[in-house]
Amino acid sequence: MEQYLLGIDIGTSACKIAVFNREGKVIAAANGDYPVYYPHPGWAEQNPEEWWSAVCGAIKEIFDKGKVLPEQIKGVGIDGQSWSAIPVDREGNVLTNTPIWMDTRAADICEEMNEKIGADEIFQLSGNSLQPSYSTAKVIWYQRNLPRVYERIYKILQSNSYIALKLTGEFTQELSQGYGLHCFDMHTGTWDKEMCRRLGIPPEFLPDIHPCHEVIGTVTAKASGESGLAEGTPVVAGGLDAACGTLGAGVLHPGETQEQGGQAGGMSICTDTYKADPRLILSYHVIPGHWLLQGGTVGGGGVMRWLEKQFGDYEREEGKRQGKNSLTLFNEMAEKIAPGSDGVVFLPYMSGERSPIWDPNAKGVFYGLDFSKTKAHFIRSAMEGVAYSLKHNLDVAQEAGAKVSVLRSMGGSANSLLWTQIKADITGKPIIVPSSDTATTLGAVILAGVGVGMYKDFDEAVALTVENKRSHEPNLQNAEVYKANYQVYLEIYCNLKETMKRTGGR
How far apart are CA 294 and CA 288, in angstroms? Predict the structure, then answer.
């Protein structure tokens, strides 16, 4: 009986479950949706119990299809979105919804702590500036705003460690998600108890740290009944979605870089030495002995989903008639617009912005509109704006000493040949698109495969599972047009920054 690996991806809008064979081929897959709640301006939260429900439903759907038997699953890997702060009691019950990576409610707490402790001192230990998107300030926010919840907290978990808890009953923290808390020493990969004290985060809230590929437990009888997985199936600690996606895209060695185009956008540069810049994000890679210098942006595939939801009524109906996806029709419209969108420039700051500007008050902007502009201009300029945010992060990374020669693209936007070419033209970097469009989940199962011994090491795993589908070379003629628009992109934010702050709704 053939052996398989199962990967669980806890994304922002849905979980993705996929079963892979040893060669990285998807045998079966299913998704489960859940909402994001926006109860107040600047808030964005989810209910982790809805993640678990969706995971169980999707796993059962896979087994119900009959292609895979539970006993064929030899290991489970989990990746998850960053910067959750899930408060659970001793029994593992969720005490309140978790703010997610888009949430900026704790901006005032960040300002206070940066002033009290010193922004530079925090950065020197953790390798990251203290910003409201991270987990740190969210924990402090619980203390100040939800005292009844706070007094019942046993552990604070990240998204993948919560699913690991539901599967195994074990409270864990893996290395790659440690960066969410600024009491995490990025130099040593350990909790710093003195910084815990200064931040006001009890060290006992923080689970023991494990390597991402370490087997932390097995599926319990209770979890087996709820999910359909066989009792006793090994589960590894898992990792950050961006890091797992980086692994699944084939990024193993220093200088190799992943470009992310899922709900959010960004890049992850692999390095074997500590490199930090307060404008960027530094985490451990899921591969031992390596870090990822990341640029994480709000703008990504979510921008296009927003456009489609708000302005895609005709395309949805026309798509049914033509047998095409509405986003495919959006893509075809954008192709008819010249590079540079005839001067329309878009700032993709639809929920504030993360790196490199770290501005929770930043707003989305379309600039350059007149009566000649069409819906197609909105679509293409949105694609270009997301690419400008990628370039902005790459430029800052280069200033920090991290040079990039080739990008390896993943996420839904990589399926768009036009969007990928736009990114190549704007960044000036060749882009390779791996054949698998499930790179993040693949990265999670590679962790499981190494953890249970299906692969001897990460190099073997990547060599067996990652293939390239296509590549894009920068168009130098288009690059000149984009260079001018990029400067406008930077100027618009610079000129509107104070206005955004005054009207940001905090």
Answer: 17
β-bridge partners, 345:
367
Burial of residue 273 (number of CB atoms within 10 Å: 0-12, 13-18, 19+):
exposed
Distances (CA, A) of 431 to 271, 301, 345, 459, 473: 19, 17, 23, 21, 7
Quickly state the pLDDT bin for 405 (edges 50, 70, 90): confident
pLDDT in tens, 150-161: 999 999 999 999
Instruction: Look up residue 281 and give its amino acid.
Output: I
End-to-end CA distance of the chain: 57
Distance (Å, rounded) from C-alpha 31 to C-alpha 9? Answer: 9
Q: Is the pLDDT of residue 505 over 70?
A: no
pTM (global) more than 0.85: yes
Q: What is the pLDDT of residues 103-126, one digit of tens each?
A: 999 999 999 999 999 999 999 999
Question: What's the angle, vertex CA 498, arms to CA 492 and CA 502, rounded to 5?
Answer: 130
Question: Which residues are CB-contacts of 308 (< 8 A; sequence separation ≥ 6)?
Answer: 315, 316, 326, 327, 330
Domain span at residue 76?
4-237
Say how far apart CA 292 and CA 245 lie, in whole Å: 12
What are phi and psi for residue 338, nearest 5 degrees?
Answer: -70, 150
CATH of the domain at 162: 3.30.420.40
Task: Please enumerate in sequence order all residues whose Cβ is within 8 A of that of 179, keeping only pairs 6 or more positions apart, or say none.
Answer: 126, 127, 128, 134, 186, 281, 282, 283, 284
CB 258 within 8 A of CB 251: yes
Number of domains in the chain: 1
